[in-house]
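Researcher: Hi, I'm a grad student and pretty new to this. My advisor asked me to get structures for two proteins we've been looking at. I'm not sure of the right format, so I'll just paste the first sequence and hope you can take it from there.
Model: That works fine. Here's the first sequence with its structure tokens right after it:
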Amino acid sequence: MASTRRPGTRRRPEAIEGAKHLFDPNALTLGFARRFATYKRPNMLLQDPQRLLRLLTNPERPVQLILAGKAHPADQAGQALIRQWMQFIRRGDARQHVIFLSDYDMLLTEHLVQGVDVWINTPRRPWEASGTSGMKVLVNGGINLSELDGWWAEAYAPDVGWALGDGLEHGDDPAWDAAEAEALYERLEREVVPEFYARDDKGIPTAWVARMRESMARLTPLFSANRAVREYTEQHYLPSAAAFHARQADKGALAKQMVDWRHALEEKWPTVRFGEVKAETKGDQHLFEVLVYLGKVAPDAVRVELYADAANDGIVIRSEMKRVRPILGAVNGYVYAASVPASRPASDYTARVIPHYDGVAVPLEVTPILWQR
């Protein structure tokens, strides 16, 4: 974002010197820095400006807030959010407690994640792609206070930071935004600020330090580039390289077998169909039985499974169904069965037939999938 002062003006020397001593290194410092877009809800703390001001100016437990960010040149709504913050900061009673840093970039963020005590993130679920700035805070001893979205939905635990939201999606409901703003104030007033200023006889915030150490020890190894590169290498790159060499060996003999199998399968696939599907709930299990007529396709060339889309926990369920017996009077027809936990409705599950051949990626390399209708 461009500088907020008028073109042609210069800062007085005393103003520049005063800026060097604007913040207190011993006060609780909150950080919020990211692209200003409406779905990120960067003005959630401004839902109640007076309440925010009381939080910042408490003489016994002062809080200071560092903001940084940019809005796309065409994003008028995002630019308006920045102007709201500038209007708040220009108030005489807020000026000593809030600062908006111009020219937000990676270098500025590098300094911010090293200097804040709490990193705040308030996206509207489920629009947070990841939230990597919160990961960068970890190694510097900062603690996250974030919406249960992106990486924080996976990383959060009560002893490593603070969370907003219920893990569900509420669209752009203004009432929910207001409720989450209320929750943010509550977290800060009743949990974050008191814990930071609760000191022992040596002046050490023991509970805060314990949370900080737990966050660093538990989350830093998991949410790091080292871990990501290692897992990609071990789980994807090396297996892919091994699979390529296996297909390439013996003048591509295995690759030719796979291609022949795929062509034969695609020709025969229209003969596969579903019969009756039965579902029964017993205790804490759903029991499914599905009749599948494979037509001209060999039983070993397919896999039958129960599938359920991700629920609010974000978990997709794929449960393989076992071939238990032939269908009486049918040619190449079989009964497949499986049981799944009854924690989700039986109606969430759909049976499907997918191709199967060792080493072939479905549906990347073989596309036909038959769904029960």
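Researcher: Oh nice, that was easy. Here's the second one.
Model: And its structure:
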Amino acid sequence: MNFNFDKNLAITCKSKSQKIRIMSETWVSQNIFCPSCGNIHISKLPNNMPVADFQCEYCGETYELKSKNGKIGKKITDGAYSTMIERITSINNPDLFIMEYSADLQVVNLSIVPKFFFTPSVIEQRNPLARTARRAGWVGCNILYSQIPDQGKISIINNQKISDIKTVVENYTRAKKLQTNDINNRGWLMDILSCVNSIPSIDFSLQQIYTFIDVLQRKHIENNNVEAKIRQQLQILRDKGFLEFLGNGHYRKISNSQ
């Protein structure tokens, strides 16, 4: 695979961001398969599409691309906050490709975050633009990438080593077991999954999860029985094959390889 961007595509472009957008989107459309179904080609959508950049003609899954020179870090800058919240609470939100490229314009890493891992708690509202700005009062947002559970960060390319199509599709299919269109239920499930991930040991106890009660209460101020909600979500994770119940309030994490 050629990891280089085609610089000739952006010769006439004036802005750096426009150059990167054209080169990175073209590279994905020419090199990347559909993580959802494994179709070897995804099509670039017209530039005037309001949400997605690509679509798989076989399964219909849509994708958006965010790219950055160097490491993504903890946050990803995105567009209008209100638009983002509206998108993630709808059924039309695309999956998100995350690309890291080098200073010499080579793709280094690429991962996919399925749309059902996005919740309001991972969208950070930025301060409104100043009155003197051209778009005074406009409110943007950041995607808190570090707060998305690891199960929702599926690697396609890691240090220019491309993953097997079958492995990516299997990881995507497994992650899809967590899909729910109810945004409140999704928020709880992702928050509990993040708590489970933060425990370093494979085996853990219910009491260890209870140490996150204050954090969860701040995120879900409308809930008056957080302990019961925790137990409910752990049962869902067990039923979906992400946890094994060992008895007496003890659990074991189930990895992708099992």
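Researcher: Is there anything I should tell my advisor about the second?
Model: You could mention this: The chain has two domains: 7-175, 183-253.
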